[in-house]
Amino acid sequence: MLRIGAHMSVAGGVSKAVERAHLHGCEALQIFSKNASRWSAKPLDPAEVTVFRRRLTETGITPVVSHASYLINLATRVDTLRERSIAAFIDELDRADTLGLFGVVIHPGTCTDGSEDDGLRLIAEAIARAFRERPRGAALVLLEHTAGQGRTLGYRFEHLATIIAHLDSSPRIGVCLDTCHLLASGYDIASATGYHHTFDAFDRAVGMDRLKVFHGNDSKKPCGSRVDRHEHIGLGHVGEAPFSRLLHDARFAGLPILLETEKTPASGRPGTMLVDPFDTQNLETLRRLRAADVLQ
């Protein structure tokens, strides 16, 4: 079965994310290794890194991934933004390796001009450059399937397949599927038939071996809206049934499903270590569905 976890704040130090995850009974974890809304970042504190890695071993929380900065756009043609994005992306990979993370989740990018094919090629070229500059990097690059807002790329499985093909099917590339994004981009995972068709299509286009992580989010908007608005599990247009299917799908055994649902204000402030009622609600929903009989 899937390993249930959530995105946790690193406020107060990166090791605090592990403590927050443990407090909530998480089996897997996602973090930001730096401020996701800033280009610059202080180096990781070696003492914090040591505690972070030790506490992961002690708690058994695995796998752990980071989510790359939202500022990064590997599809842009604007030279200054492209160079800044690639440098920030490489820094994300470096930080992930320092922390011993499984991978870095990244939104593929947004077309600033040109065709989608041009944008997909630019994304692949940026990742290839990162691989050349960090040939011994261990953290995977996890391309996140997107909702398709505006001119964002990655909302079709074929987009992900094209990027991977441009990278000669590198083993350093994996995929993260977000349940909200799947529905919003037009994959009807809410119905039993749509669920099966969606993952058959993913297997044909990309291959199940590339799927490494799920983001578990319900959707405030309906199928095909191409609007990325996360909702608490079971309270949106995805509903509980698809999560039940995911949690019992043998093809996904051992993969993490990581919540990115709304947090309760103040739960992640520096110096605080509080149980978040919203996280508890969503984690308990997933645990209940995992413990129950699977829906067909």
Please tell me about this protein's structure.
By secondary structure, the protein is of the alpha/beta class. The chain contains 9 helices and 12 strands. The longest helix is centred in the first third of the chain and has 21 residues, at 79-99. The radius of gyration is 18 Å and the shape is globular.
Put the structure in a nutshell.
This protein is α/β, with parallel strands linked by helices and 296 residues long.
Helix/strand layout:
Layout (H helix, E strand, L loop, with lengths): L2 E5 L7 H9 L4 E4 L14 H14 L4 E4 L11 H21 L3 E4 L2 E2 L5 H18 L6 E5 L7 E2 L3 H10 L6 E6 H6 L7 H14 L5 E6 L1 E2 L10 E2 L8 H9 L7 E4 L17 H15 L5
Parallel strand pairs: 1-2, 1-12, 2-3, 3-4, 4-6, 6-8, 8-9, 9-12
Antiparallel strand pairs: 5-7, 10-11
Helix pairs in contact: 1-2, 3-4, 4-5
